[in-house]
Every structure is written in structure tokens, then in C-alpha cells.
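Work through this:
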Amino acid sequence: MKPRHMIALLSMFAATAAGAESYTIDHRHTFPVFEVSHYGFSLQRGRFNKLAGKLELDPGAKKGSVDISIDMTSVDMGFEDWNKQMRGERFFQTDKFPQARFVARDFAFDADRPAPISGELTLLGVTRPVQLKVGQWRCAKHPILPRQLCGADLETAIKRSDFGMNANLPGIGDEVRITIPVEAIKDS
């Protein structure tokens, strides 16, 4: 390859790489909320209060990726005794599996918003495919900080038995609906 062709190829690669933008998930405005049937009487809800993650967006290529780790010990059902039960051996087993992780390495955009995001959820040491529906989506200048902010509302449903969580089935429902308000701030 001639040197000028090599320089042109490297320049194209640098331009492509420069198109990707990195964002840090804002843990104060991002928290997965789940709901599950409680013996058919009501839908019980909980949330996770601690997580961390990164979002990569390439607006030119209309692609992105996301990697989020959830601190399973931060489960919040509203009462500490219930939180302890959820962290215990019958449910999240946080002594063995302190984190859950969702990774989508390559999702596409439909016009200016992400198409459904296909990725993998690892929970209780089991990894399964999960698809997140994207509700609201917006990227704009943060109203307070001098940086770009992207936010979305995401939804999915999983079967807890697919991850080995079988306690109290079928009384406590197998299907778990998950909604996630998420915000991410562009790295400087």
C-alpha cells in the first residue's frame, strides 16, 4: 500500500472513531424498577438504587452501545425486612451474585432514536438475551451543566425462572416487568 493511501485510510478510521461519543450513566436519575404479581392480588414493585455504566453513541453511523452494572444489594422494596428477604437465598442471592449486568454492544437507530435495544442480561450468574423497548428518547444540552445529556424510558419483561429464580412459583409471578428511566451525561 502506498504511503498516501495508508494516510487516507488512517484518516478515515480516525474520523470514524472520532464520531463516537462517550456518556456516563447518571446514577441519580437512573434506576431500574420491577413489578411482579403477588399471588394474583396485587403487583408488587421494587427498585435498585445503585448502578454504574457507560453509553457510547455514534450519531453519524446511527449506532450505539451500553454497559450497565446494577448493585443488587441496593434492592429497595420499601421495608428493610423485605429488602433482606429479596437479597437472600430464595431471590437475588446477593452474597453470591452482588451484581447484575446489561450489555448491548451494537444497537441501531431508526431515524433519530434508538430502535429496540437487543442485549444480554446477566442475573444470578445466568446470561440471557433481553430486548429493551425505547419509549421517550431525547438528547440535548443539559439545563444546568454545560454538557450534552441523553435520556430515555426503557421497558422489558423477563421470566425470572429463566435465570434460576424459582422461589414461590407460581404464586409469585414468573413474568417480571422492568421499566428504567435512564439519563447519561456526555463525558467532557
